């Protein structure tokens, strides 16, 4: 299919722009891997136009990275679209800056001072994070705080569609397990986590459990253990899918309450969308494909600061609550920003 599409574009280019056949740079681009990646990306995205977050196999298929953004990671999860909406700029123009792809604890900075200040903007969540960036050497006039990205994302479902699913599934507990990625596998006691989910389900009276799985874990069939319990598995899709954040927003919208087994960007996203969250903390190892443990922190100071901030957040989310408490709101506003 991709070869036929590639040949079609090549033939049409030669037909309507014959002069381009003599342009070496155009020919090189047209035949480059980047051009092929663009075509494959567009084709696969088109195939997902009407995909539901219940369609695990379709949404978890690999999508090649192709973007016109200045920094490739800007387009992860569709963050670039949310940032553009927040900033009031054209969705068709690249973000002239760097978009942090998730929440960072431990005051970790991925880019060097030179790289950061080469961009016009450095887009992040909160004033607290802005202060961290400034201490790392980022000039304050470059930093733009936009709050939780998910509040700027266009939901994949209309309000009437969300209401229909709420009526169909009843009181839904959304469960978000700690997820793997391509070069790292999360290792935790899934049976213990499932037992805690079942305990909450019975004690609170949820009618259905949704488990939101990352595409990598679906590819590894890690969702099967949850399916065996009768849980409904959903996914927001692939990291390179620009509609990821919009799907995640609708998945959260359907739920009555949410829970997870680790700290992550999802915690603030749930609260920002008005859904209570509960963190059932458990021991999680991060493993390389070789079987070695993944080193999570580049320095001891970053690890020390991370553990301090993690404890601050988990302290207010470690008990199940049917409502969002003032203490939880205070912490989320601090780290995830205004909403």
Molecular structure report:
Strand 2 (121-124), helix 7 (127-135) and strand 3 (143-145) form a beta-alpha-beta unit. The chain is an alpha/beta fold and 339 residues long. The protein is globular, with a radius of gyration of 21 Å. The relative contact order is 0.13. The chain folds into 3 domains: 2-59, no CATH class; 72-152, no CATH class; 159-336, Rossmann fold (3-Layer(aba) Sandwich). Helices cover 43% and strands 11% of the residues. The protein contains 15 helices and 10 strands. The strands form 3 sheets. A 5-stranded parallel sheet has the order 7-6-4-8-9, with helices on one face. The protein has helices at 2-16, 24-30, 33-47, 56-59, 79-87, 113-116, 127-135, 159-169, 190-204, 215-219, 224-227, 244-254, 265-272, 300-317, 326-336; strands at residues 97-99, 121-124, 143-145, 172-176, 185-187, 208-212, 232-234, 257-260, 277-279, 285-287. Helix 13 (265-272) crosses helix 15 (326-336).
Strand content: 5-15%
Helix percentage: 40-55%
CATH architecture of the largest domain: 3-Layer(aba) Sandwich
* Average residue pLDDT: 88
How large is the radius of gyration?
21 Å
Structural class: alpha/beta
